[in-house]
């Protein structure tokens, strides 16, 4: 059963269905509903991406060394917070990883927050979105593991005692494969539950109770973005450390 379309998704399907089908065809994928190929989560994700693109393009034109504005001050505070968190996580030469962690945090945060607007919904409440983000982190920390340690990175799968490697290798592989699923389920489950609770109470009353649950939704949005980013730091720390 196809989910109810948001008004923006309906616009995409009415005017851009051929575009979506062409892209899917190039990837050798057949849409479940070719006449309505756009789904809410994808449209919402594209909306957040476009918003952030415009936001940072405008912010870049307003950067100033002499007279920084309020948004620039906020961005600098956020960068310092993230850089300090990376250092506290114990990542060696951590500043080079800040752009990735900052991107992940901001992207997840805004995808979470868009669900607080009644006419939209959070794309992170669809499994495909957290899974895609978790896969990016999975590939990212393995990439830096090999780049930082070379082939010695594989030694962490063997364990501290060489003769235990027949036991340790499958355990370590399962442990690493479980990480993206853990990241996915944590973000998806919390955002899905928060979205459902908010929707239910919005349908019951329109004054006091929705405000409380909107505030809770915003808190959960920040918290889940932070937890996802923090766990990504922990994985990068483990992959890039030279003291395995």
Question: What does the model show?
Answer:
With 244 residues, the chain is an all-alpha fold. The protein has two domains: 1-38, no CATH class; 40-240. The chain has eight helices and no strands. The mean pLDDT is 88.
List SSEs in N-to-C order. Answer: HHHHHHHH
Can you count the beta strands? Answer: 0
Which stretches of 5+ consecutive residues score pLDDT under 50?
none
Major sheet summary line? none
Structural class: mainly alpha
Mean pLDDT: 88
Global morphology: globular
Tally the helices: 8
Quick rundown:
By secondary structure, this protein is mainly alpha-helical. It has 2 domains: 1-38, no CATH class; 40-240.
Describe this protein with a few key phrases:
single chain; 244 residues; mainly alpha; 70% helix; globular
Note the topology.
Elements: H1 7-15, H2 17-26, H3 40-61, H4 70-88, H5 98-113, H6 128-149, H7 165-204, H8 208-240
Helix pairs in contact: 5-8, 6-7, 6-8, 7-8
